């Protein structure tokens, strides 16, 4: 016959023994935790890749803007790149035709003919931007036409091509007149996206 102490030991051992439906629960919990950690790790990796891609695109866009801005600066600092005698003759001839133009297509044609373009390069002979210069004219260029590049038709203010020198420019009104031009510098990213910078300039000439 079992003693009281033996019965107590048997009861204690039974209480410590896990029930049949609890066996393997620790393994399932471990697998679930590992799965959760794996998902978190994959999410962190994907987030890092996305941030790197965004940073790369931003860097490329910034560099492309700098290139477009450098092209515009080159055109302003070195006007001989586009302001040639032949170009001035062409502008004057086409502006005379513009005054007689009666249709939109004629206006676009003569403005396009009065355009001069060249490629700007950096000190390492790498292409930086394509620079386009046209006279500022007193008519707006329609934006729905395909006869002229978009770079030459948008965001360019309309004003008279020839005007008196600006006040304080140092050029006398009696001897000089200024001619106004619009410079459009276009740089392209490796993915084909374009960035444009447009500026207005004037040049003083003897009357």
Total number of strands:
5
Instruction: Provide a count of the helices.
Output: 4
Structural class: alpha+beta
| SSE pattern | HHHHEEEEE
Give the helix level as a range of percent.
40-55%
Put the structure in a nutshell.
The chain is of the alpha+beta class. The chain has helices at residues 4-16, 25-77, 85-100, 104-113, and strands spanning 116-121, 127-135, 162-163, 176-188, 194-206. Helices cover 44% and strands 21% of the residues.
What does this structure look like?
The chain has one domain (50-206). Strands 1, 2, 3, 4 and 5 form a five-stranded antiparallel sheet that branches. Helix 3 (85-100) runs antiparallel to helix 4 (104-113). The protein has 207 residues and is of the alpha+beta class. The chain contains four helices and five strands, in the order ααααβββββ. The chain has helices at residues 4-16, 25-77, 85-100, 104-113; strands at 116-121, 127-135, 162-163, 176-188, 194-206. The model is unreliable at 142-148 and 150-154 (pLDDT under 50). It starts with a helix and ends with a strand.
